[in-house]
Design brief:
alpha/beta; OB fold (Dihydrolipoamide Acetyltransferase, E2P); Rossmann fold; six-stranded mixed sheet; 17 strands; 27% helix; globular
Length: 315
């Protein structure tokens, strides 16, 4: 067993860490905050009628975990026998599982600006989000949430509100479409799921951004107004914590409510998010609570605004 040791990085500096591993001849990466440990081949028990990439289950210190062979899922040819494989124990979206890979190299510190998305969706396929240029190599960062949801559709984040529930929930704030919400999320799948959840709650006035830099530019545009920002943590160009820090340090935008909505809201990430001013935090499996949290924040904002107006009138 090899525990994943994280290097402490300053919060909001746009730096984070990845574990680099190999599938065949190609290098891949996964965020350190998604990983727990790296194991030698622990053995595997086959699950009948499971997807081909879900090669079975294993036991790690008494805990039963599914094993996903990324080589099978991505159709990568490998000469490594299962007994020589490594297993990366990952945890995100409140799911814990093992990714089977050929070999694990080491942990690298990177900057969000190092992530190149110019080929995403055009030539890289639907499972690859970014290319990281490292030591004259191209390291590929995968959309792990999309991979897991594809293998296990029951883990998909879906929630639709019926109109009676929407009316009851939003009756004290006015019409949801009057509020402008900006979303920063790099995964196309999860960005669509956030959109669908908000729209089912009546919040149709949305600006969807694929990274923090795009969201920041929208927020800082002349005459721009947004009522809430919903942001992921792990993103290219400008990650969610750096985005939050910039907004809270700017006098013109410091009062913008921010929801950090991530698959890796471990205690240390929650503490980091709070330290840069993200008062509201939610994990991606809790998407059913997103509309309720948005309504709560808007109600709090309206109440606070009403108190300020009342004080001014008395003065």
């Amino acid at each position: 067993m090899q525990e994943v040791k994280k290097v402490i990085t300053e919060v909001g500096t746009n730096e984070w860490q990845v574990v680099v591993f190999f599938l065949g001849e190609q290098s891949f990466a996964i965020n350190v905050d998604k990983t727990r440990e790296i194991l030698r081949w622990p053995g595997c028990r086959v699950i009948p009628d499971s997807p081909s990439a879900m090669i079975g289950i294993t036991s790690v210190r008494g805990e039963v975990l599914p094993l996903v062979d990324l080589r099978v899922f991505l159709h990568v040819d490998s000469k490594i026998e299962p007994e020589q494989s490594k297993v990366i124990i990952a945890e995100f979206n409140e799911v814990k599982l093992g990714f089977v890979v050929d070999a694990v190299e080491r942990i690298y510190r990177i900057n969000s600006e190092d992530l190149d998305s110019s080929l995403t969706g055009k030539y890289l396929g639907e499972w690859i989000l970014y290319v990281i240029k490292r030591d004259e190599r191209n390291v590929l960062l995968l959309d792990y949430e999309a991979i897991v949801q594809t293998i296990s559709p029951q883990l998909s984040m879906t929630h639709n509100w019926d109109q009676k529930m929407v009316h009851e929930l939003t009756k004290d704030i006015g019409h949801p479409a009057e509020f402008r919400i900006i979303v920063a999320e790099d995964s196309p799948l999860i960005r669509a799921q956030i959109r669908d959840s908000l729209e089912s709650g009546g919040f149709s006035n949305l600006v969807l951004c694929s990274d923090g830099k795009e969201a920041f530019d929208h927020i800082m545009a002349p005459d721009a107004h947004f009522d809430i920002l919903i942001t992921d943590v792990e993103m290219p160009r400008l990650d969610g914590l750096a985005l939050t820090r910039r907004i809270k340090e700017n006098e013109a935008t410091q009062d913008l409510p921010i929801i950090v909505f991530s698959s890796i809201m471990a205690q240390d990430i929650k503490a980091k998010a709070a330290s840069v001013g993200a008062r509201y935090q939610i994990t991606k499996p809790e998407i059913s609570q997103l509309v309720e949290l948005v309504v709560k924040i808007l109600k709090e904002t309206q109440d606070a605004s009403g108190k300020k107006d009342s004080v001014k009138s008395v003065a």
